[in-house]
Amino acid sequence: MTRQFNTVGVVGLGTMGAGIAEVLARTGITVVAVDVDEAGLARGRGHLDHSTDRAVAGGKLSSDERDATLARISYATSLDALAGVDLVIEAVPERMELKAAVFEELDRICGPDVVFASNTSSLSITEIGVHTGRPGKVVGLHFFNPAPVLKLVEVIRTVVTEPDVVTDVVAFAEGLGKSPVVIGDRAGFIANALLFGYLNHAVRMYESRYATREDLDAAMRYGCGYPMGPLAVLDLIGLDTAYEILDTMYHQSRNRLHAPAPLLKQMITAGLLGRKSGRGFYTYDGPDSPVVVPDVLTPVASAEGEATREVQRVGVIGTGTMATGIVEVFAKRGYDVVLRARSEEKADAAVGKVRKSLEKAVSRGRLSAEDRDAALGRVTPVVDFAGLADCDLVVEAVAEELAIKKAVFEALDEVCKPGAVLATTTSSLPVIECAAATARPGDVVGLHFFNPAQVMKLVEVVETISTSADVVATARRVCLDLGKVPVHCGDRAGFIVNALLFPYLNDAVKMLEAHYAVADDIDNAMKVGCSLPMGPFELLDVVGLDVSLAIERSLYLEFREAGFAPAPLLEHLVKAGRLGRKTGKGFRDYVS
Ligand code: NAD
């Protein structure tokens, strides 16, 4: 017979425990909440009051429902209060000895049939289980933060968890309105195992001053559509919790990418734990507040180099998707654009593509016919490089091959007027190679637009060791003028977005390859647990597996990081011609 969990104990009323207690009480379950002392309880209660008040203000809960919800929760500072519950969910800090002590005590207090669940993010459920006399009744029940909002719940079974316990806990989670996924006991489970390597990598980038916190976060929000950037996510999770999760993952995987970045430890030691302490990577207007306030690290406009170069006439080289998208963006904004193609036919076809795209905007009511005509009127196709002589800025968007790009920069060096800014939109080649092909490396910068350029707001402004400060400042100013979000980074493989994104996608392939979880569950976990717009396999199939493999190879070649080595499964799929949506088959099969 199915177990009914009508009364549930929640141990630890912190970030997660308070959220879990709210989810339970809102579903009509009686909750007994335990924390170490009155201060812990007061903090948890504050969380609950605040969160349910917000739900009332947002029209998601009536005030009567809020009162009934809060009345279902009783509070205690001793685990003895849990003697009569049907299920215990533990959410104390992420330390094995602490969790072990809690469960040893609970084992004496609770009846032998009571099910024990841990909300641990990474610790071994098997190990927790053996600290009790009922390892068959111990599961992981991993909620996501904020628990009242995020639907994913990972249910972790060990080799000894009784199958009916898993079934009943899954039914219970479904009854809470959650989407449970059942998986085995491996550090980080699905979502954290994939998320934390990425978060840690972002901390390392920040630590090495590769990019500012604002730019790192903006890159992932505007380049990938993530709801939050990695450093803001770490502040939400809590840096102490994040450190423990990474440390546990590292001890199990011995993967250097999981070794917590030293900066995390320093921040924790200094009491910067993230939102819960009012300061982490960002400063908040008080403990537990989501509102970021300016601090000494907040960028100020006056600290930027001066954008001394006037830009009115822009050259774009190439006729592909990126080139025509970039032409459209500049022309729409009122710049005179010289489009350079290798032949007149290609030039005509490229202008035709721009026209088609502008016409689409008109038919959707986003652009007037006059603006379309004006934009097209600003585009001049040329075949000779000489046509770019009087451009103030030239953006190269030809094929992603170094020899071709270098030849373009040599040609630009010959024809362009002194002081022109020369930009490449390469996504994976070193910008310095393009700069070195000219006698004016100070004028060369990376301007990495995202596809489709008309839609995606992000532009990575890549500075080489030679780029002049006023060229970077000019590039940023132009991006802002185009309505884009420029982020500034150094000249390293993958810049910000691809360097953070592709190792994570690669880890997902390795997880699939290891048969830890199936593609649907992995995609679902990342979408539902982390609010990402697409799961890793969906995204890989859209980007193209050949393109993804090429980016992963370039990251691996540059950083020689063992964890970046492309997953053999990806190599095999590419070899077999399964390149994703464009070939109808990738990780999944598609019907055209
Ligand atoms: P937290 O530091 O916000 O809260 C922990 C709470 O446990 C505090 O209120 C503390 O007073 C209390 N506590 C400490 N020792 C206790 C004891 N012996 N008995 C009872 N209460 C005790 O931590 P958190 O972020 O809520 O993490 C709790 C668990 O949830 C961890 O295992 C963590 O890995 C996991 N988790 C965290 C997140 C997240 O985003 N923060 C997400 C999912 C899971």
Descriptive report:
With 592 residues, the chain is of the alpha/beta class. It folds into 4 domains: 7-183, 3-Layer(aba) Sandwich (Rossmann fold); 191-293, N-(1-d-carboxylethyl)-l-norvaline Dehydrogenase, domain 2 (Orthogonal Bundle); 313-490, NAD(P)-binding Rossmann-like Domain (Rossmann fold, 3-Layer(aba) Sandwich); 497-583, N-(1-d-carboxylethyl)-l-norvaline Dehydrogenase, domain 2 (Orthogonal Bundle), CATH 1.10.1040.10. The protein is 45% helix and 14% strand. The protein has helices at 15-26, 38-57, 63-71, 96-109, 125-130, 163-175, 191-207, 213-224, 230-237, 239-253, 262-269, 321-332, 344-363, 369-377, 402-415, 431-436, 469-481, 497-513, 519-530, 536-543, 545-559, 568-575, and strands spanning 7-11, 30-34, 73-76, 87-90, 115-118, 138-143, 152-156, 179-183, 283-284, 292-293, 313-317, 336-340, 379-382, 393-396, 421-424, 444-449, 458-463, 485-490. The strands form 3 sheets. It has an 8-stranded mixed sheet with strand order 3-2-1-4-5-6-7-8, with helices on both faces. It has an 8-stranded mixed sheet with strand order 13-12-11-14-15-16-17-18, sandwiched between helices. Strand 16 (444-449) and strand 17 (458-463) form a beta hairpin. It is elongated and about 85 Å long. The chain binds nicotinamide-adenine-dinucleotide (NAD).
